[in-house]
Amino acid sequence: MDITTNQILGLLIIALIPAILAFRLGNELAK
């Protein structure tokens, strides 16, 4: 089973979205 670049990018995006949302939420709460 090959892992394609698109699959890697998709996984990175899926992993990054919650991190970005949490980061933005933290910034809002820190104000």
Give the arrangement of secondary structure elements.
Layout: H1 5-30
InterPro entries: PSI_PsaM, PSI_PsaM_sf
Keywords: Chloroplast, Membrane, Photosynthesis, Photosystem I, Plastid, Thylakoid, Transmembrane, Transmembrane helix
Membrane topology: Single-pass membrane protein
- Oligomeric nature of the chains: single chain
Which secondary-structure class do the elements indicate? Answer: mainly alpha
Fraction of residues in helix: over 70%
CA gyration radius, whole angstroms = 14 Å
| Succession of helices and strands | H
Strand content: under 5%
Low-confidence stretches: none
The tally of helices reads 1
Number of strands: 0
The main β sheet shows up as: none
| Coarse morphology | rod-shaped
The overall average pLDDT, rounded, is: 94
Tally of individual domains? 1
**What distance separates the N and C termini?**
47 Å
Keywords: Chloroplast, Membrane, Photosynthesis, Photosystem I, Plastid, Thylakoid, Transmembrane, Transmembrane helix
GO cellular component, one term: chloroplast thylakoid membrane
Subcellular location: Plastid, Chloroplast thylakoid membrane
Family: Belongs to the PsaM family.
